[in-house]
Design brief:
With 223 residues, this protein is mainly α. The protein has one domain (6-221): Phosphate transport system protein phou homolog 2, domain 2 (Methane Monooxygenase Hydroxylase, Chain G, domain 1). It has 8 helices and no strands. The longest helix is centred in the last third of the chain and has 33 residues, at 176-208. The relative contact order is 0.13.
């Protein structure tokens, strides 16, 4: 890395992260459109895009590590680079979840998808991811906290799906395997929202230095 002011490196790495996040969220919404119109032919394009995003995420991680090794940042600068690394990892997981979701959704009947409101749930999770990145760009603690508050809405949707699916499973002619896939989809979407909340908490850490942990309340969702 040529000798440049540290803040320019951080700005450059931050812009790369934002670009990656835009692609991750865009790919998720493309996947939802493919499901909505039952366009299995669009899946290879979505998977190829995700593979390209993976390469960019690896490159960003390597650049951040190189930056840490060469510049030994402290205080806010250190927190920012660590936050970029953590958010980058969250985006990797979100991308993986998107692929799992589209693979399962395309196997389910459109009527079941509509009944369980998966499009609405997925859009809400995707918007949480987008807002969490906005909070990063703006260094906005209040916006980050707003993202965390929205997580409860996804939890409520997940509970709705669980209740609905378990009721459907009691029918004699129920396709239990497909219904189990529906539960997996709901869980994947809920996990995506968890990652959005985690990004928001990482933003709060970057801005304030406060460390908070996102609770895993899956046990609460199924009781």
């Amino acid at each position: 890395m040529p000798d440049r002011p540290v803040h320019l490196y951080i700005k450059e790495l931050s812009l790369v992260l934002v670009d990656i996040s835009d692609k991750v969220v865009g790919n998720l919404f493309d996947a939802l459109r493919a499901v909505k119109y039952h366009d299995a032919n669009g899946v290879p394009t979505i998977k190829l895009a995700e593979k390209e995003i993976d390469s960019e995420e690896i490159d960003l991680e390597e650049r951040c590590i190189a930056f840490l090794a060469m510049h030994h940042p402290v205080a806010k600068d250190l927190r920012t680079i660590v936050t970029i690394l953590m958010i980058n990892d969250d985006l990797v997981r979100i991308g993986e979840l998107s692929l799992h979701i589209i693979d399962l959704m395309l196997e389910l009947a459109p009527e079941l998808l509509e009944k369980l409101e998966f499009e609405k749930m997925s859009m809400h999770a995707g918007n949480m991811v987008k807002k969490s990145i906005d909070a990063f760009v703006l260094q906005d603690r209040a916006l980050a906290e707003e993202v965390c508050a929205h997580d409860e809405k996804i939890d409520a949707m997940h509970r709705f799906v669980f209740t609905k699916v378990t009721t459907l499973m009691k029918s004699q002619d129920a396709d239990v395997e497909k219904l189990a896939d529906a539960l997996s989809i709901s869980r994947y979407i809920e996990r995506m929202a968890d990652h959005a909340s985690k990004i928001a908490l990482e933003v709060i850490y970057m801005v304030t230095g406060e460390i908070a942990h996102h609770k895993d309340d899956y046990e609460d969702l199924i009781t």
